[in-house]
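# nightly structure sweep
# worker-07 picked up a monomer target from the shared queue
# config: single-sequence mode, recycle default, output format = structure tokens
# input follows
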Amino acid sequence: MASDADFYAHGRPENPQLPEDRPRGGGPKGPPPVHSTAWKVMAVVIAIIVLILVGILLFP
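# output follows
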């Protein structure tokens, strides 16, 4: 009976290590991304709340 090492070694390449597709600690360092979408969503939500409050105050 073949051992586990023999079984799993069958058909493997000589060097089974794969290069890292995302190397750690590298890459260009630029300015942090601007998250303007969050501010737009907040502005829309606040505008809706203000419209609801104005509607309640004008038509009680």
